[in-house]
Amino acid sequence: MDRRLTPFNNRVAHVSLHGQVEAERFVEGEVHPVTTPVADLLAGIGGARDRQLLRGDLFRVLELHEGRAFGMAEKDGYVGWMDPVDLVGAPTEEPTHRVAAARSYGKSTPGLKQMGLITSLSLGARLPVLGEQDGWARVAWSRGTVPRDLYIPVQHLAPVDRLEPDPVAVAERLLGTPYLWGGNSAFGIDCSGLVQIALHACGRDCPGDSDMQEALGRALPPGTPPERGDLMFWKGHVAWVSDPDRLIHANAFHMAVAYEPITQAIVRIQQQGDGPVTRHARLTT
Length: 285
Hints:
Elements: E1 12-14, E2 25-27, E3 30-33, E4 38-42, E5 49-54, E6 58-65, E7 68-73, E8 79-82, E9 97-99, E10 103-107, E11 118-122, E12 126-127, E13 129-133, E14 136-143, E15 146-153, E16 157-159, H1 167-172, E17 184-185, E18 188-189, H2 191-201, H3 210-213, E19 218-219, E20 231-234, E21 237-243, E22 246-251, E23 256-261, H4 262-274, E24 279-282
Parallel strand pairs: 1-2
Antiparallel strand pairs: 3-6, 4-5, 6-7, 7-8, 9-12, 9-16, 10-11, 13-14, 14-15, 17-18, 19-24, 20-21, 20-24, 21-22, 22-23
């Protein structure tokens, strides 16, 4: 079983795995929202970052062990370990809006020129808006046991049920975002993170890693002319097609989300030892 998608360790497993694995306990777990702007999901206690979750994402905690929370992300089933501090102070309100700008911020006071504490927010963060004051959305925010309001420019928000029509347009908002292995935010993102954040903004399911994402859409025969919204895969890499001649992808060559001519990318990736294109896929509507 793929440990990234199997909510199980030797001590505890999710009830859905009853009869499939051996564990001391089978539990439903408790769902907690992420309450920090960005939180790492680790491969193990003290292990490497696999992925990241954003403010408002839900994490199902199956076990607390050695100061870490083991469980799975509700949005894609990705399994791993989190710092419980990132799950403390869960707001009671359901998210009503998401951050639609590449990057935004909330501050402790409304108004353009008023001073206040600043909290950075990424594209895709989900927030409960309680009202509006002079162009600033008032958002319920809490950390630990201290609830307070945060104010965010209304222009940066969209209702959670207002879906984006074009995933590539979402990815293009993140041009220049630094490349970060396992990153899922506008402060650092990798190739599969760019695909997932764009598809989630469009209300479409998407797994977390590029090898999982190769199952998306339908495979096209070699030589098929690329179209905007296609995905191109290499071993360990994925890119959006932004137009028939150009990709947009988060990559370590540019150390950023960048455009790159398709023919140039194919040659460069082959020459650096990562092989040819393994799949060209077109997403179904």
